[in-house]
Structure formats: C-alpha cells, structure tokens
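Ticket #4471: complex job returned nothing on first submit. Input attached below:
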Amino acid sequence: MINFENVSLQYGKNAALSNVSVQLPEEGICGVLGRNGAGKTSFLSLLCAYRRPTSGTVTISGEDPYENANIMPKISFVHDSKSEVENEIKVKDKIKIAAALRPNWDAAYAEKLIKLFDIPVKKKVGALSHGMRSAVNVMIGLASQAPITVYDEAYLGMDAAMRKLFINELLEDYMERPKLILFSTHFVNEMEGLFSEAIIINKGQVLVHDESDALRQRGTTVIGFIEDVDHFIDNREVLSERTLGRQKEAVLFGELSEKERQAAKENGLELSQPSLQDLFIYMTEEGGRDS
Amino acid sequence: MKSALDNNRPIYLQIKESIEEDILNGLLKPEDQIPSNSQLVKHFNINPVTVLKGINLLVDEEIIYKKRGVGMFVSPDAPEKLKKRFSKTFLKEQIEPLIAIAKPLGLSQQEVQEMIDRAWKGEEND
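Support reply: We reran it on our side without changes. The output follows.
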C-alpha cells in the first residue's frame, strides 16, 4: 500500500505540492487528473521516488521508497521523455536496458507487444514519431510487470486507434495480473470508464480522491427555469452555473437524497449526472472550487 | 450489445441495462450464457470493478445466475421479470415524455392516437 502523509514538495520558493495526504490500494487503476502544472507529475515523481518530499512522508509497503533497493524494482514509471542520449540508441537496445532493470520483465509478452504495436526495433529512438516513441514507452511499462506501474501522460502523440489498442492491452493484462496502475491524463473523456478510482489535483493540492463511480455520484447537473434552479441550489455547493435564455444549468457537488431528487423533479427540474470530465473541468477551472 | 457508453450516467448501470435490453429483445434467451466479465471489459474498455458491479446487480435481482466455474446464465424467468418491470415504468418513462413533447407541438390527443395506430400497424406488417 502507498501512503502519502502531509507531503509537500518545493522547487526553490515554489510549492509544487502542499500537504497532500493520500492512500492507495495494492490493486486498482487510479486516474490522476489535473490541468497542466497542477502538480500531477510532482505527485507521481514522489511516488516513484524520483524525488524526495520537502516535508511529510511517502511510504510504500511501510518503507521510504527513496533510493530503496527493495522498493525501486517494484515501480515502473512511464513518461514522455526526451533525452539526447536516448535518441542515439536503437529501440531494441532501449528495450534491452529496460529488461535488464526490471526483475519481473516478461520477455514473451514484450515480443507480443512489439508485434501488436508494430514497433520498428531497428530504428534509432530519435528517428521515431512522437506517437511511436510513446508506444515504445508504454510497451516497456506493460512488459515490466511492475506491481506499481505509473503512466504519466504516456500516450501523448498516439492516434486514436493506437490509444485504443493500448487501453485494451492494459485492461487485458490487468485482468490476468492485477497490479496498481496510476494513470495521469487530461484526456478524461476517453479514459473515463478505465478508472476504478480518481484523484483530482489542482494547484498542488488534492481536491478529491474517491472511487470513480462514487465521485461521479457526488455531482448532479440541474436544469430548469432560472428561478426554480436558483431556489433549489441555494445553500448548496455549486461548481458551475450558466444561463441560456430563461433556463439555467447548475452543477452541484454533494450527494442528494432521494427526497431531494423527488422534490427537484416535482418542481420541473431535470437532474442528470455530470461526467468525470465535467467534474474535473468545473473543479479546476479559474474561479473554480478552491479559489 | 450496444457499442458505446454515455458518460452522463453511471457506467455500471449502463452495463446492467445493456444486458437487460438484450434479454428483452431476445438476443439473449433463457439459459443462454452472457458475455464473460473479461469480454465486457474489452468490449466497453472499462474497469473490471465497474463491470462486476453491474453484473452483481443482475445476480441480486435474479435476472442472471452463476454456474460455478462456467459463467453467468440468463434465468429462465428473466424475460417475464423484465417485461413486468418495464411495463410498470412504461407510462412514466415513455408515454409521459411523449405527451410532454406532443403538447407544445400543438398535436391533439386524437392526432397522437392516430400516429400510434399507424406506427403500430407498420410494425405488425414487418
């Protein structure tokens, strides 16, 4: 299990993360959602022990992961990297290096993935398209079979067909060999069903962390005549409001009771559930929930 | 099986409903095996936990039942149960919305009735 306790990370005077406390289970697919610069990568690099927190503690199975030879081999961090050194080596050598570093490397599975993603192993890494470079990265993530696998915006540059192939493979492998997968993205719509839980990060803070179904159920979209909507949302936590002619749409946060839902319907209001994408956008936009 | 999900409703409910629809439409018959969890996961590209949640609801309502080590099967009385349940909600969920649209269009009760009659016959002739 992963445990973050009051974790902060400073770069000089800038706080990248402040007072983050989060617990993650041993199995699951967790979406880490946030806008650019929200702190997603800082959060994930602490988890992968690429960095050490400025204050607070990060533990994995009770141990500090930083420079810890017991923990490091259990984690695979897949991210969009561009390194000069890597550009000069061949794809097959990049894969060989990854294989040597990963105790659980599944060579047969790696071969299968190379064929599936049509990866040109003889080319130099620097000669690959962005999408193909990402394909190599996720292929390494999948074949690593690390108990904790982190994909940080890992599919950038991939086209829709390739993303689908990747997600399909990720799920199939997850069903056979469950693990903890963390997946940061701002393509929330497409990935919505993938997550068993989601963390929304904004401005260095964790706004919410919950099972994705539960999280979605905490949001309600209310549509109706302006006066009726205003009356209903009075004294509730409102994430967003917009009017269209005489109608108004408001997104509420906080579960409604069956009684409240009934009352809303009797007043001619239409209720629906916002998508994770909508909740994410409303919670993190300027003038949003925490500002 | 429908092919895509709608992001604005709980996904596990949509899994449940898509199987119920297939039973009502006769695509799945009593004692047929329903798609396995892993087939559903791949079909909809969603988390296995979500699939399980939808499937468990169907088991709780005895629409499907489990044969240990084999899979999930449609209960013998599932179509009857679903027909009963859907008939109960038919007025509220189908007829009332229809009237709510017909009224502002200025259609009279008789005009709507005639349309229903025509559509009904059209279906019978198929």
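The longest strand of chain A covers residues 14-24. Closing as resolved unless it happens again.
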